[in-house]
Structures are given as structure tokens and as C-alpha cells.
Amino acid sequence: MKESIALILVESSFRQAHWWQVYEQSLAEEISRRSLDISFVYDSAIPDAQSDEPRLAILFGTTAGWLYETLALCRQALLKPVIVSPEPKEPVAGASLVLPDRVGSTHKLVAYLASHGKRNLAMFNPRPTSANGKRREEAFLQACQDEACAGFVVDGPEPRTSAGILARQASSLDGVVCVDDLAAVFLLGELAESGIQVPDQLFVAGFGDSVLARYARPPLTTVTLDMRELARQAIGCALYLHRNPRTISLNCLVANQLVVRESTAFLPEGTDPAGQLALPSPDEYPAPRPDSPELKTISCLEACLSHANEMDLAIMDALRCGTSCRKIAGQLYVSESTVYYRIDRLCQFAGVGGRDLFLDQLKRYTRC
Predict the structure, then answer these.
(1) What CATH number matches the domain at 102-225+258-264, 3.10.450.50, 3.40.50.2300, 3.90.280.10, 3.40.47.10?
(2) What is the pLDDT of residues 315-346, one digit of tens each?
(3) Are 125 and 265 in contact, with CB atoms under 8 Å apart?
(4) What pTM does this model have?
């Protein structure tokens, strides 16, 4: 019989994000591997529980408002929370934390840029209402202060406008740290449109080590965000608390690694240790706003590349080069209808209505 230990509470808007797809798959794999019975609950609608049902809840969301509302519901339902996302701005009594090291990873990236003389920095955050993004902003500003860098944040809700601000100031900047990889890939496209060459004129880096980061123009330097490990640790934490009810809470910090690519000229990472930062916390976070159409495009392209196999990648490379579907079929030793089917499938994942639009996105944001 499967062991029932917890509920997984998910903010409804977070379900639309590509990140949740990775979390969901990893959670399902870990639940199956451990032969557990764990239910997914959405929109903070915690069901009435009987006395023999689990008294733990694993939280996945993106906005601070949802987090604190859900924590209040957990208290009412006598559920012990395990918070994975978003990161709370202050300690929560009785709550366990399974978090990526956002502070340490941001400091690592700023220190890396500073070690190569890049001390005039900006942060690009096109999701200003994201709680995790705000924590990243705080960490960035503190890291700039610690590393004797000049730093400021551009976090307007219109990504193209914010990217334009950075493009106009590119001559006075050494590098831009983006709040995540998808924002960085969008910025790379906007900078290229403005004639700004990365990395020759400006360094750009992000967070997440997404699939799209590897195919960006140029390939993106990034700090890993191991969502699979976060999911595994979240289940492991809940299982330990379930089996050891006298334990009040646990804290788990998942480490990050810097992945150096062309967007920072392949310059090697230094060895300066990252310090522990004491971050200021804002009094409140703004209300959530949906992603802009531009960021939804990037997110869909990331999902497309995540689902692509070797044949799909070969088809995309051939399309960029202007190869016809008939010729692609001959090169891959498959039928022409198979090529059309694969392209239609890729278009569906990318959220576009045809090959021409799909090809435009590939050329704008990815490389051969």
C-alpha cells in the first residue's frame, strides 16, 4: 500500500509556467520511486482532511501574496508547510524550506563579472511582481555593494521598453545580469536588433541553465537551477517530517554552479568565495501581473526546445539554413510527411501558427 504523506499546493498561475512542467515531472518521478500517495491541489483550495490524512503541504507558487495566503490556510488546516517557491522575504515559524541558493548564486555571478573587470552592471527583471525576482534584485544590489561594483535594476513591466533602456546605456555598462535565462534570451534578441554585439560590447548572463540558454545567440552564461533536485529534496523533506513528527522544521539549500559560455567570452570562473549576505526585505511586494506577450514567446520556445529530440533539432537547423522539407526528409531518411508532422508539433509547443513564424523565432533567438 502506498504511503500518504502530504499535499502539493500549487498556485494556479504557476501551472502555466514552463518551470512547473519540469517540477511536476520530477515530483511525479520521485513520488513513484518512493511508492507514495501525494495529491496535487490548485488555487489554495485545501480540502477538508480527516484525522488520518497527511498533515504536510508542499508549496509551489510565484507570488508573495499567494504564499502568505496559503500559509494562513495551512495554519487553519493544521498543515505543516514545506516551501519550495516562492522564497519568503522573512522566516516563517514552523515552515520548512527547500530553496535554491539565490543569494549565493547571485553573488557568485556578480563576483565572476567583477573578477574580470566588469564593474558597471545592471539587472534586467521583466517580471517585477515575481517574489523570487525581487529576492534576486535584493541579492544583486547587495552583491554589487560587496564587490565594489556600480549596479542598478531595470524592472519595468514592459520588457521591450526596459530592454531599450539598457540598449541605450550599453556604452556605459560592462554587463547585464538577467533575473532568469528566458529574460536573458529576450534581451539578447533586443540587443542584436539595436546593433549591440554580445560579448564584444556587453556581457550578458542569466539564471536557470535552461535548454534555450544553450541555443541562444550567443550561447548564454548562466547559473544552474536544479529544479529536479529541488523536487527530490522537497519530497524527501516531507517524508522525513512525516516519519519524525517531533521535528518542527528543516531547511535545505540546493547549491548552484556557474556555466560559462560565449555571452561572457568564455572567461573562466575565479576562485573568490561567495559570502553570506544579509538582505534587506521590502515592506510588501506588488500585486502579480501576467507575463508580457514577449516573455510568453520566449517561454514557449523554451518548452519547444525542451520537448525536441535529435531529429527535431536537425530539422530546426535545416530550416534556419533555408532547406526545403523534401530535402530535409532525404537528409534524415524519413518521409516528407514525417518532417511536416515534426514541424507542426514544434510549432504547437512554440505557440505559433505556422512555419514562417516559427522560423522567425528560431532566427531571432537561437543559433545554428
Answers:
(1) 3.40.50.2300
(2) 998 988 888 999 999 999 999 999 999 999 89
(3) no
(4) 0.79
